[in-house]
Specification:
CATH superfamily of the largest domain: START domain
Structural class: alpha+beta
CATH class of the largest domain: Alpha Beta
Strand order of the largest sheet: 12-18-17-16-15-14-13
Distance between the termini: 67 Å
Number of helices: 10
Largest sheet: 7 strands, antiparallel
């Protein structure tokens, strides 16, 4: 068997997961590796599969070495993989060959390419050492030019580890117990071919199947199963009365601990000695105890007997007892529907079992880390009405409510008496009443009323500093008393501004607060990701934003209150391309002005000196890697009459399109900063990170 050239090497520090042998594992189907990159997980490492210019499949680390964007979001251009975030391009060896925002490709800018081989309908990758130690599988029976055989492909998920899947063929006692085959099976070890391969035969003089599956007197005849196995794949041949009746290739993808995907092929003759019995034989993997109707955890779904003239895929009914997933309650778990959660067998997925969105968010929220002190959006003002509202912030539960004067308050959601959830209570005489024992708390969080007795002196709940402006209810995080006020743009909530010119966006994302806010300081991504057509390099100017903060005193030992910046391009063409051109929205000079805090931003866009729109960019940090990006914008009228209104609509569409383009990047960015390879165009981002970290220190140390 001739091997295609091995591509690349894994890093020296790569160690296989627990109980995983070194070997060739399936990374994906060849048919799935086409025009667009495809993400996969093999042995706990995240990779991307794509085809180089020569058509060879490449298995590469999933994340761009620049700022950690997921490469499967990019495109293959002229045989090179282009990152969608900043348009860095990589060849089939993982070398960065172009970085448009810089004149020279940074030294060391490359992505790891792992050893790979393509054959038998799959892309394989080597796991566990620098160089492959044995060849990929040889399965000559998969000859598509042969009309004498039928071929069946299978792929099932199982919670069993890869070793358990592969060792199952050598487990002789399980054949009569699980599959209902006759006793008297014998295991004989063959001569060892090489250090990485073992071979054996399992034979019986007479194979019988339970009635009514086999009605032949004396059974089907003499059975011999030949197994040839490496640590990562197996080739099996079934002989009946000394005549080959089936060949099987069994391979695995060890996705992660407790999750494995079984892959392979089954090849059976179209006619011959097993003409009438092959459908019977291959359809009886689970005979005793219900036959094909049993649940096979390899597929995770119950299989019902069906009348079909061709044999089912080999593993469709096999080894159900070995691979059934058992929940904590002892019940089997059915395979979750796409996008849904696991549901124990016997329970309905809807009705009372379905939790509300707020409940699911609260349950999944983890405490935030590396969060700067500042003002964060608790919720939009219009969502806080007369009844208390549950809010999840900073990985904890809070309750929002309005006093008798209409002012908004954000306080901890748990009553200090018996732990009841205060969002289930109500507002009484300007206080928040607990639904359990009717304890009442004022705007400062102090308990001011207990039925029939004096309130305990220590009975209080945490009250966050709260403001309401720009269409949002804001809550202060960390560092004691607020050191500045949140941005206040009255036009964002004024009813005098027509609704056609005002809009809000609230998009959940897995990005952190810092990742969301630093994006505005990244001029290169505006061109690469958002498709802005500009001429020349962006000019970035930072302004001194020091001002008097809450509490007069020396400013030297305090962090800068803001990081204000102005980005200017010599020429600009709108995001919507031809549409922007038709409405005359292109400009000779495009300017973006920011007033940037560590927790939110106020942004204005100018074209040839005229303001197009202004907006607030803010964040709700629900928990670790779980945020909501908020945008509240007002589009300025651009001319008189109908043309002015149409231009305003185009500006509005530009903001909405650009905001949604960022979300796939945010949701797949590699966490952390140590992976970054920076270029001169990233200096503004790095400066914001230093500024942001100053306010992280304020939150942690005051």
């Amino acid at each position: 068997m001739s091997l295609a050239p091995v591509r690349g090497r894994p890093p020296r520090d790569l160690e296989p997961p627990r109980d995983l042998a070194r070997g060739w594992y399936v990374a994906g189907r060849s048919s799935h590796v086409g025009g667009r990159p495809r993400a996969a997980v093999v042995a706990g490492r995240e990779v991307v599969l794509w085809r180089a210019g020569d058509g060879a499949a490449v298995v590469m680390d999933r994340f761009c070495p620049h700022q950690g964007a997921a490469l499967e979001l990019g495109r293959v251009v002229n045989g090179e993989l282009r990152c969608t975030f900043h348009h860095w391009r990589f060849d089939g060896e993982g070398t960065c060959v172009a970085a448009p925002a810089t004149r020279r490709v940074p030294r060391g800018a490359s992505a790891r390419v792992h050893p790979s081989w393509e054959g038998l309908g799959y892309v394989w990758t080597w796991v566990g050492s620098a160089d492959p130690e044995y060849p990929p599988p040889d399965f000559p029976h998969l000859d598509r030019r042969s009309p004498a055989h039928r071929r069946y492909r299978f792929a099932f998920d199982t919670p069993a580890p890869a070793r358990r899947v592969l060792e199952n063929g050598f487990d002789v006692p399980h054949f009569p117990v699980v599959h209902g085959l006759a006793d008297g099976l014998r295991l004989t070890w063959d001569t060892k071919e090489d250090p990485h391969t073992i071979a054996a035969r399992i034979t019986t003089d007479k194979i019988t199947l339970p009635a009514p599956l086999d009605r032949r007197p004396g059974g089907l005849g003499r059975l011999c199963l030949h197994l040839r196995s490496t640590p990562s794949y197996q080739v099996l041949t079934f002989e009946l009365n000394d005549r080959p009746v089936a060949h099987e290739l069994l391979a695995v993808t060890p996705v992660a601990q407790g999750r494995t995907t079984m892959h392979g092929w089954t090849v059976v003759p179209r006619s011959g000695g097993l003409l009438g019995s092959s459908p019977v034989f291959w359809g009886t993997g689970s005979s005793t105890g219900g036959g094909p109707g049993r649940i096979c955890a390899s597929t995770g779904t119950p299989r019902k007997p069906t009348a079909r003239s061709t044999p089912p895929t080999t593993r469709e009914y096999c080894d159900s007892a070995s691979f059934i997933a058992v929940g904590r309650d002892g019940g089997t778990r059915e395979r979750p529907s796409e996008g849904g959660a696991e549901t124990p067998a016997g329970c309905s997925g809807g009705g009372a079992m379905r939790r509300s969105t707020s409940d699911r968010i609260a349950a999944s929220a983890r405490p935030t880390t590396n969060l700067a002190s500042g003002w964060y959006v608790a919720l939009p003002s219009e969502e806080l009405k007369r009844r208390p509202r549950r809010i999840t912030l900073f990985g904890d539960s809070y309750v929002g409510w309005r006093g008798s004067d209409g002012r908004a308050h954000v306080q901890s959601a748990t009553c200090p008496h018996a732990g009841a959830a205060l969002h289930g209570g109500k507002v009484v005489d300007g206080t928040l009443e607990c639904p359990f024992h009717r304890w009442r708390f004022d705007e400062s969080g102090a308990c001011v009323f207990v039925p029939g007795r004096r309130p305990p002196a220590r009975a209080a709940i945490t009250a966050l500093p709260t403001r309401e402006c720009s269409g949002y209810v804001w809550a202060w995080y960390g560092g004691g008393a607020p050191r500045y006020e949140p941005p206040d743009l009255p036009d964002l909530e004024s009813r005098q501004v027509p609704g056609i010119r005002r809009f809000r966006l609230a998009d959940p994302t897995r990005a952190t607060t810092r990742r969301i806010l630093e994006n505005t300081y990244d001029p290169d991504h505006l061109v690469a990701l958002h498709g802005l057509t500009v001429t020349g390099e962006a000019r970035i100017a930072f302004q001194d934003a020091r001002e008097e903060t809450a509490g007069d005193g020396a400013q030297d030992d305090k962090p800068d209150p803001r990081l204000d910046a102005t980005l200017t391009w010599p020429a600009y063409r709108g995001v919507l391309g031809t549409v922007s051109n038709v409405f005359g929205l292109n400009a000779g000079e495009f300017t973006l002005r920011m007033r940037g805090w560590a927790s939110c931003q106020e942004i204005e866009y100018y074209a040839d000196g005229r303001r197009l729109y202004r907006m607030i960019l803010a964040v709700t940090p629900i928990g670790e890697h779980h945020s909501i990006q908020h945008i509240n914008a007002v589009v300025d009228p651009d001319g008189a009459g109908a043309l002015g209104w149409l231009r305003a609509l185009v500006h509005r569409a530009e903001v909405q399109v650009a905001a949604r383009q960022d979300l796939p990047i945010f949701d797949t960015l590699l966490p952390g900063d140590r992976h970054g390879i920076y270029v001169p165009g990233d200096e503004a981002v790095r400066r914001f990170r230093r500024f942001y970290q100053q306010w992280v220190e304020v939150a942690e140390h005051g």
